[in-house]
Protein 1
Amino acid sequence: MPTHRGAPDVRVYPDPDALSRAVAQAIAGLIQTAVAEKDRFCMALSGGRAPFRTFRRLVEAFRDAVPWSGVHVFWADERYVPFDDSRSHYRMVREAFLDHVSIPFDQVHPMPTTEPDPETAARAYENLLRAYFPGPWPVFDLAILGLGADGHTASLFPGSPALAERERWVVAVREPTADPPVRLTLTLPVLNHAACIYFIVTGPEKTLALRRTLADAPDLVNCPAGAVRPVRGDLIWWVDQAAWGIPLSRADGALSVP
Ligand code: 6PG
């Protein structure tokens, strides 16, 4: 897969609150620009605590400032549980974000965990994406990703056969260490064709995974997040001080990264 990998764009903030304010502002800006230019903004979302804070901040600060009617929402991954399960990414995003902004209902596309089996669900979601996005790969305007302490991102876990997928857009995975073990996930080529990727990483338990991911030659099997390398798009690491791990000097709201 063609990639570019210069110095990573890492933006470190003193705490999760400052971080979520900055990410929300950046997301609002991306939406405003895209909707002004092409009437549409497609984003793929993740679960996790850090995205949750960002979504809440988007609602608090930008509910009336963003052209939500042009936003189309998809998911980067989903836990294979009913929509009302407390572990559902869809439920989290709906409660934190979608219930509070005016995105048209038919522009919100949760991964279908109501299919009889996860493989059928993965095919169904891939078909939905193929109908939405012409071309060999979908190009999301933004993919929001988290980082697991084990180096996983979306539901691409260390050692998973899904990491080698080069044709499918969506696959079902089984990861015994995860709760729940059965999940749906976008594949690496899909993520890597996004126009912009935001990783949001908070907490000291992420420091080691972050170091491994940002290494010059990451172990892509054991640290799947390191395999997220946009083909043409931008990749920004939004990180709090606790996850970054190294004390930094303050500069312009963000902390400067050496
Ligand atoms: C999940 C998510 C996962 C998440 C990371 C980070 O099911 O847990 O798919 O990829 O984004 O684990 O989560 P936190 O932001 O909560 O640390």
Note: The longest helix spans residues 16-38.
Protein 2
Amino acid sequence: MALKVIGPGAGAPAAGGCASSGCGGSSDALAHLPEHIRAKVHNHPCYSEEAHHHYARMHVAVAPACNIQCHYCNRKYDCANESRPGVVSEVLTPDQAVKKVMAVAANIPQMTVLGIAGPGDPLANPGRTLDTFRQLSEKAPDIKLCVSTNGLALPETVDELCAHNIDHVTITINCVDPDVGVKIYPWIFWKGRRVKGRKGVAILIEQQQKGLEMLVARGVLVKVNSVLIPGVNDEHLKEVSRVVKAKGAFLHNVMPLIAEPEHGTFYGVMGQRGPTHEELQALQDACAGDMNMMRHCRQCRADAVGMLGEDRGHEFTLDKIETMEIDYGQAMERRRQVHAAIEANREAQRKKSGETFISPASIKRTRKETRPVLMAVATTGGGVINQHFGHAREFLIYEAGAADVRFIGVRKVDLYCAGGDSCGDAQTALAKTIRTLSGCEAVLCSKIGFEPWGQLEAAGIAPNGEHAMEPIEEAVAALYQELAAAGRLEQQAPVAERMRA
Ligand code: CLF
Ligand code: SF4
């Protein structure tokens, strides 16, 4: 039997499932989905992990108001249900937003999805949100439309969303029990008045569940976002996952709480901590038994532009857009060509993956035990290892085992190599990066400098630039074999684990 490369992505089974196989089968992570669902997700960078290596999304910040209060939100910042706090978006009118979307679509042809995710709640601003969608469904029919909401106003908006061809909706559901919810939501604004405490939370939960059921009944793909708040809803999220899955949600995205005192949120000021990488992964794994889990979310801002993990918003400020002449007919033709090239490249990668036979037999001959190994990967997209270690702002984390390779999550880091006179800062950033990669035993990148090489090795993380430009999962599997052949898998535990112990 071959070493399976578990194709990442929405709809891919949890570890142990074989969505893609090195044993000659299809390596398309979406292959098991019905054709009409596959058509909806194959180029949506959030609904398919595989797609996020190739396609981009953008948000337009047209929705400033909100109808609830979350303890992790400060209205100064974007809606933290779909964003990380600490960034603020400039609010656009629907006309400005449409112009911006068409400019981005023409200049970043791999942008396939327009989402509205804030900076408040999109459905608490129905006029602005729906006007933007209505115009775009007419003027740019090749762009998928997507919305993210807290769900309070969802049931009353479902029909209009469907009328504008919005077939991806995210609902943030942090609880299905008002007794848990009162620790997260102090009040909601409902029918012209503020409803506090348990009563308000019960209304919110009822509306979220009703909205979910209505969307599923209409064939809309629903993703559920949940903010993991240790000690508040961590255990409860398993029940949330079970309930929303039973009602037909397509995907569950458990996001870590980000709470810092300087954000001025209730949780930040009260010292509520966010989860560790290990806690987040453990909960995602626990929920995965019931549900397809999203693990590649970047908690992007309400005006994000580009591939997940990058932000090209500065290229499309209002003053720059004003000067752009867009012929959208021509742009659509170019977009079609670019998408065809991307699909050809994906198909070639799948074929290569299907042809690569990685036998664990060689591992078995050399090992006393084959334990799973975490590896960090530096990539700018395209599904290959193509980024310099010092230029990475995030690392994708994969777990390689004797039987499979699976995607685990994303860890963000400060830029280590900024050039110029920033060497002192670089040392601090490097030390932080190495701490962020704790638990990993190897890092794969296109290149790496002498200094970080030494420090990574000293921390028990093997730097590796030998697999530059190779498909990620293939490279991870190959490095696992190399580590096994070098006797590294016979060690009892990586340095990071020993240090924790
Ligand atoms: Fe935007 Fe959200 Fe649509 Fe994606 S983001 S509205 S589903 S197009 Fe994606 Fe960004 Fe995570 Fe959101 S990575 S924060 S899940
Ligand atoms: Fe803030 Fe979003 Fe919650 Fe509204 S729904 S309070 S904008 S995090």
Note: The domain at 358-500 is CATH 3.30.420.130 (Nucleotidyltransferase; domain 5).
Protein 3
Amino acid sequence: MTIRFDGRVAIVTGAGTGLGRSHALALAARGASVVVNDLGGSLNGQGQSSSAADTVANEIKAMGGKAVANYDSVADAVGAEKIVASAVDAFGRLDILVNNAGILRDKTLAKMDPADYEAVTRVHLFGSAFCTRAALPVMQKNNYGRIVMTTSNAGLFGNFGQSNYGAAKAAVIGLMNVVRIETAKYGILVNTIAPMAATRMTENVMPAEMLPLFKPEFVSAAVAYLASEQCNVSGHTISASAGYVARVQIMSSPGVFFDTSRDLTPEMVADQWANITDMSKPQGFDSAGAEMEYIAKQTMARLKKSA
Ligand code: NAI
């Protein structure tokens, strides 16, 4: 199988450096026309500059690819619409959106300035939602789209000092879970990457000997697959770093079904705790409705049996 993006148009947000740059180069190298979006600010989201996006767009053009730079902020709904408009204006369509832009403002929650909580949430969660919202009408018209969100292990598993970032990154999973249901009928697939790579975001937290192993290009291979026609799943979260690629999924234990004709007490919950939390037979649900159906079916079956 050869994965190509000839004739496809992609937006990569935050593509002026780090992972976004690597994703943009990977898609362009396989034929995509790319909007290289980047606000060009610092790691904590201060300042702005056109040079980051320009540099990467020029890099793509120098290797014979097609790219335009865009400097709007994903955190602003109007900015997000301008990012999408720049794809349509330059290349006439939009097939791929990689929501990658991000900032960090780490501190424990007790010491965190509310403005830092808001700024981080704005870029990661609102930015992903605004860009996706702006992209959908264009993709829906073509009955085709590939959207890749970016989460973080800080949100999936927890990390000290990143309550703003971790919460916003975990919320991106919720965004994917809902949008992929809304867009399924239009051939639009929404998946999420959970990356780890040596970039300015991690260069001070990763041990020096690990940095060369965690090349952004390793993550970009998984992103390019999720962005391709060959990818036919939606709602998947894929962890990718160094040579590791794995699926991460929210799973539920089979659970314990109590008798609904009687009151349920905290003591009964305590008594069944080992069974309630037994993850030896985990199950995933395809939607909130699927979980409700499982609970209702099991409950009704038990009621019938006891009648
Ligand atoms: P980075 O700091 O190297 O790149 C982020 C880019 O986003 C920067 O070029 C920045 O200017 C741009 N950006 C920030 N705010 C923006 C806005 N409002 N509008 C447009 N562009 C904006 O960081 P890195 O490491 O490349 O991260 C990329 C994504 O991957 C982020 O979403 C990050 O949270 C996520 N991530 C990275 C990990 C890693 O190990 N590097 C781990 C987990 C998640």
Note: DSSP finds ten helices and eight strands in the chain.
